[in-house]
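Before relying on records like the one below, remember that each one covers exactly one chain. Contacts with other chains, cofactors or solvent are not represented anywhere in the record.
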Amino acid sequence: MATHIQANLQKKNAEYVSNFKDGHLALPPAKKYAVVTCMDARIDPAAAYGINLGDAHVIRNAGGNARDALRSLVISEQLLGTNEILLIKHTACGMLTFKNENAHAVVEQNLGAAGQQELSGFDFQPFPDLEKAVEDDVRYLKASKAIPDSITISGWVYEVETGKVKQIV
């Protein structure tokens, strides 16, 4: 039996399919750029960042983390031809609210010793300073041997309270 979420997916997809006209879009992104941003449900990257279907790769993870996104960025650039990265973190991010010790304690409390053991030494990569985290991630990408020097990289903060973006780097 389908959950409410699964039933909603099927219903909304049927509506989407009835008007779908974009099956002709090419595999590589038309505007040759990638966006790394947070998985936060309050962010609609297409609407907030002006991305039309087929324009860009949008890579989402907790905190808009460059290290977590590196595999996808290499594929995006090396196999699919992108030549620019927009790294966009946001205000009121959950990654600002905890330290590694806190996350490990919650994992152990909820999943027991076995869950904690599997994640022993795992860095959840929280950050206490938003703008510094943007700067650090841009620096990481620029220093990475897996990202060519020819790739343009910029860092931004999206304000969930106003919808505005502000360039940091």
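The mean pLDDT is 97.
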